[in-house]
């Protein structure tokens, strides 16, 4: 009797669980589709955030192939608050360094500042006037490694001196990257900041001096990498001028720009090269320049205006420039 009762109980349990298993098996493709759709959705959000720093459009002017702009802005704010952007940035930086044959953590760094103008929508309390560079806006303090990859960023008003504004960036570098024992800086960071870095942080801040008699443009040793980073950041339209309401959002936008730079560097797999010289019609000696409207004579010979040549293909022009005979 007891054995029969156990059999009945097991049969009832199997009858109860079988429909749920069937429903789960039937719903499994739907769940997989939702996961893939969410992953693709998050990839679009990351691509929009990185591309937003590049193209510099407003949030409500997103292209139609992106998610709705309130959704993108919500994720941008959420990832800014919970530190997701910093984690993604730090992970990519370590991979770029390892790809270049270095350790993931740097042992030296560079520091510099850049004053940029701000939009009229930026609050007055977060901007100032840089009397040295005659710029009214904000000042960006960044610390990079010797490859030019970002280690720390701090955005303040432009009226803050370099010796005062650099302390927080150096402190963050000391806490997040304890292996960075030496930092190179320009002459604007000299003075009491060097002593403060040695006594408080226990790090060496070396000032790179200019040549006594400079003639023309000279590349400064060690510091050229951070100057290149500034030029790459300024190439992003969103960072050519500070449009963000808060300095913290401006720092996040700088990290998104660096994420895009590092992703392109990883996918490229080789050092960046400049495009070659563009092929112009004047490079082909036997092609006549089309006459301008005020240069063309009124007479028409053979049904065509004088000075107008036939349209040539790109291969014909390339062969002409390379020295091959005229087709």
- Sheet of most strands: 6 strands, mixed
Dominant shape: globular
**How much strand content do the residues show?**
5-15%
What is the alpha-carbon Rg in Å? 30 Å
Tally of strands? 8
Query: Helical stretch count?
Result: 9
Helix/sheet category: alpha/beta
- State mean pLDDT (0 to 100 scale): 76
Q: Which spans of ≥5 residues are poorly predicted at pLDDT below 50? A: 17-24, 30-35, 298-312
State the separation between the terminal residues, measured CA to CA.
Answer: 103 Å
Subunit arrangement of the protein = single chain
H/E series: HHHEEEEHEHEHHHEEH
Helix content: 40-55%
Describe what you observe in this structure.
This protein has 327 residues and is α/β, with parallel strands linked by helices. It contains nine helices and eight strands. The longest helix is centred in the first third of the chain and has 54 residues, at 2-55. The chain is globular and about 90 Å long. The chain starts with a helix and ends in a 5-residue tail after the last helix.
